[in-house]
Amino acid sequence: MRPSYLSSRVAGLRPSGIRKFFDIAATMQDVISLGIGEPDFTTPQPILQAGIRSLQQGETHYTSNSGVMELRQATAEQIERLYGVRYDPATEIIITVGVSEALYLAMTALLDPGDEVIVPTPCFVAYQAEVILAGGVPVELPSRLENNFALDPAEVRKAITPRTKAILIGYPNNPTGAVAPRETLLEIARLAEEHDLIVLSDEIYDRLVYGARHVCFPALPGMQQRTVLLGGFSKDYAMTGWRIGYAAAPAELIKGLVRVHQYTVMSAPTTAQAAALEAYRCGEPYVEEMVAEYDRRRRLIVDGLNALGLTTFEPRGAFYAFPRVSVTGMDDEAFANALLLEERVAVVPGSAFGAGGEGFVRCCYATAYEKIEEALHRMGNFMRRQG
Q1: Shared-domain flag, residues 352 and 328
Q2: Any idea what the Cα angle at residue 245 is, between residues 17 and 269, rounded to 5°?
Q3: β-strands 116-121, 198-202 pairing
Q4: Residues 6+ apart with CB under 8 A from 299
Q5: How many CB atoms lie within 10 A of CB 163?
Q6: Would residue 336 count as lying in a domain?
Q7: C-alpha distances in Å from residue 364, one per residue of 1, 103, 155, 177, 323
Q8: Which of 28, 78, 71 shows the shortest CA–CA distance to 270?
Q9: Do 95 and 66 form a contact (C-beta atoms < 8 A)?
Q10: Which of 252, 281, 310 is the last residue of a domain?
Q11: Does residue 372 sit within a domain?
Q12: What one-character-per-residue DSSP string does 236-255 give?
């Protein structure tokens, strides 16, 4: 027998740091979870009812592999309405099983073995893994709290080599909550054009921005033709369990994603597509309501963490705070473990999100205001014991 039948790519992947702490917390009583990045809101009723009607009408069969045309058209209209970018729904949009599948399709379709992808970190835990699984090489560029976790175009330029094929960005950022200014993204756009690179822009949190307007990367001059835009419904419309997302890109690139998609899944869930279409039709008031509540929680948790001595910059998007915990004398893994065991508060070690995350933890404020208050109280007890 061989010692292992796993491929070296899979064997070399480290387990998700998010799932690890979520699984531990699930076995414990009275845990306040600031861990999993999921809205605590239930999907709005009109969207739920649309899914139910779809089932009751017997819509339980495959759709077109790329998604129902009506949903692709509505997605194109939404992107154009919000950001002024026009996509052909027939050839430039594909409906996927969440943004995670869209990311997988993009990496698999674009990368040859050894191709490098520049990945600013800290970032969503799947970015580096998807590059590796597609045969590519992730090149991490750590950002720093002192610069508000801003992307540094000068560092991106230094990281570009003859093997670089793409830059993978995600703003608003998970786990830091950072939002990239338009000026910074314009610099990245110039670099992509100068070196003939593809930009993969994960904009799943595009509607969850506070006090500013989201900058959609393909809306920048000349960028639509070299960008794969990844988006979805999970965060904006509280639809994580529906597993519905999309990719939008030039027809040549989408053709590649479709080729991988058709051998991976038959179609995104039919019921979820019906619900997503209703989200476009009636979801705007619910999005605005959720954003206002996230903003209220954001102010509570950032002020609370800073008051505890855990330095936290002000996140401008998504629903995460990223405090520095090294003041306790513990690394982020030890801090998260001790906080969970001693005070029943679940956070995620920053090192799970790549280089630059060490010494921080991610606190998700997509949970009830009162629970955040209690979590801060428990963290205060924990910090006092640490001196």
Answers
A1: yes
A2: 105
A3: unpaired
A4: none
A5: 13
A6: yes
A7: 45, 22, 28, 10, 11
A8: 71
A9: yes
A10: 281
A11: yes
A12: TTT-GGG--EEEE--HHHHH
CA 52 to chain CA centroid, Å, is 27
CATH code: domain of residue 37: 3.90.1150.10
Percent of the chain past pLDDT 70, that is, above it, reads 98
Query: Phi and psi at residue 108, in whole multiples of 5°?
Result: -65, -40
Q: Which residues of the chain have pLDDT under 70?
A: 1, 17-19, 21
User: Which tokens belong to 219?
Assistant: 């809306």
Enclosing domain of residue 38: 8-43+285-385
Residue 168 inside a domain? The answer is yes
**SS3 (DSSP) at 88:** coil
Q: Do residue 83 and residue 205 come from a single domain?
A: yes
Alpha-carbon distance 311 to 360, whole Å?
9
Quote the pTM value.
0.94
Q: Is residue 53 part of a domain?
A: no
Q: Which two tokens stand for residue 308?
A: 């505890």
pLDDT at 3: 76
3-state SS class at 178:
coil
Pairwise CA distance, residues 33 & 345, whole Å: 6
Q: What was the pLDDT predicted at 17?
A: 66
Same domain as 215, residue 277 = yes
Tokens 């998807």 belong to: 130
What type of residue sits at position 357? G
Helix residue ranges, H only, the chain = 8-11, 17-26, 45-56, 69-83, 98-110, 126-133, 153-159, 182-194, 251-261, 270-282, 284-307, 332-343, 369-385
The answer to whether the CB of 294 falls within 8 A of the CB of 366 is: yes
Is 205 found in the same domain as 323?
no
Name the residue type at position 242.
W
In whole angstroms, give the CA distance from residue 372 to residue 300. 8
The whole-number pLDDT of residue 8 equals 86
- Give how many domains the chain has, as a whole number: 2
Instruction: Quickly count: other Cβ atoms within 10 Å of residue 108's Cβ.
Output: 20
∠ CA 120-123-126, rounded to 5°: 115
Instruction: Choose one of 227, 256, 281: the last residue of a domain.
Output: 281
